[in-house]
Write a structure and sequence with these properties.
Structural class: mainly beta
CATH architecture: Sandwich
CATH class: Mainly Beta
CATH topology: Jelly Rolls
Number of strands: 12
Shape: globular
Strand order of the largest sheet: 1-2-9-4-7
Helix content: under 10%
Length: 192
């Protein structure tokens, strides 16, 4: 994605931050960069600050998110009902562990590159302009993988439903939404 722009990145007017949405689903939190009062009403998305914490997953799963970066766009505007991330996957990177949410709807829109969407139905190649949605409670576990030589850039949108949980069929992991973030457990219920 070309991050240069001939238009100014700062709009001046008087107005005042993971899973396709693992950052989006946590809401404004310690994982999002601390933002000071700002008069911006618009941003160039690719110039927004990257999320400070690369992954919310516990070890050893956090290391599997190498090559993924997120820019929590919704947090820039104080959105609290849903989150929006501009996410970049370097070649070989993945969006998240394959997961399904109990209460959170998720949506992705591909801007650049050709990721592979993995769901319970198998692998589906995606291209710029394509989108996919994941209905809460469907149980259809999903994630994106970038198998190509070019980076993938996409928007991910997820709601911030209280009481959400996530299952990870390929890994010894489950997650529960708690005040301030996620609590990660082994499948037998013991905490990480």
């Amino acid at each position: 994605m070309n991050t240069s722009s001939s238009s100014p990145s700062r709009a001046t007017s008087a107005q005042v931050p993971e899973t396709a949405a693992d950052a989006a689903s946590t809401g404004p939190s310690a994982s999002a960069p601390a933002l000071q009062a700002d008069t911006r009403v618009a941003w160039v998305a690719a110039e927004a600050p990257e999320r400070a914490k690369a992954s919310n997953y516990p070890p050893p799963f956090a290391a599997l998110m190498a090559g993924r970066s997120k820019r929590p766009l919704g947090d820039l505007f104080g959105l609290s009902n849903f989150g929006v991330n501009l996410t970049t996957l370097q070649p070989g990177a993945q969006s998240a562990l394959r997961h399904a949410h109990s209460r959170q709807d998720e949506f992705i829109y591909i801007l650049q590159g050709n990721p592979m969407l993995h769901t319970d139905a198998g692998a589906t190649p995606l291209a710029p302009g394509m989108c996919a949605g994941f209905r809460a409670g469907s149980g259809d576990a999903h994630h994106l993988v970038n198998p190509g030589p070019e980076e993938v850039v996409y928007l991910e949108i997820g709601d911030r439903s209280a009481g959400d949980s996530a299952t990870y069929p390929d890994d010894d992991l489950r997650a529960e939404k708690v005040e301030g973030g996620w609590r990660f457990l082994h499948k037998d219920g013991t905490p990480y």
